User: What shape does this take?
Amino acid sequence: MASSPSTSQPKPKLVAPLWHTLGLLTIQLAVSLALLRMRNRSPAAGEQHSANVILYLSVIVSEWALSFYIWLGGQIPGATRLRDLVGRRWSNTKDALRDLAIAVVVWIVVTAVAVFMSFALGPSHIESFGFLNPRGGAEVTLWVMMSITAGFCEELLFRGYLQQQFQALTGSMVLAVSAQGILFGMAHWYQGAKMMIVITVLGILFGVLAHWRKSLLPGMIAHALGDIVNLIAICFP
Assistant: This one.
C-alpha cells in the first residue's frame, strides 16, 4: 500500500547565518545606547539647534548603515536578498494605490491605538524631550528625511529581516511577530518604559500587516506617514 504524500509545508530557510543576526542585534543595541546618551545630554540654549541637527543626522546615518549591513548579509550564499525581504512589489498603478489606501487605514488604526494606550498607561517622561522637536527649515527638512528613513529602514529590519528570521528559527509566525515587536519596543527604550510598551504593540501591528500583505511596502508608507504627521502636530499644535 503506497504511503500518502506529506502535506506539511517545508520549514522556511534562515534569512542569514545566525552570526550575522547576532551582529545586527549588537549594532542595534549600540545605536540605542548612543541615542540614549544623546537624549540625556542637556545642551546649552545656544547649542540646541546644532544638537538637534546632529541627532537627526545620527539617526539617519545609523539606520541606513543597518540597512547596508542587511544588504551585505543578502550577499552571503544562500541568504535572502534585500528585495526578497521587502516582498511583493507593485506591478501597476492599481497595486500602488491599494497599498497606499491600506497604509492610510493602518496609520489611522495605529494612531488610535497609540493614543488610547498613552492615556491608559499615563504620562511618560518622553515629554521632557520636547526641546528636541524640530525648529526652523533645516530641522524640519531633516525630520522629514528621518521619517522616510525610519519608514524604510525600521520596517526592513524588524518586519523584514528579524520577523522572517524568527519564523525560520521557531516555525511559528505568532512567535516571530511577537519577538520582533518586543525588540522593536526595546530599541526605543530611551523613550521610557511606558512608550516602550506602546511601541512594542505598534510593532506587533506592523508585523501582522507585513504577514498579511506579504510585503513591507504598506507598512513602510504608514510608518513614514505617521512620523511626518507627528511633525505637523508639533508645528501646529
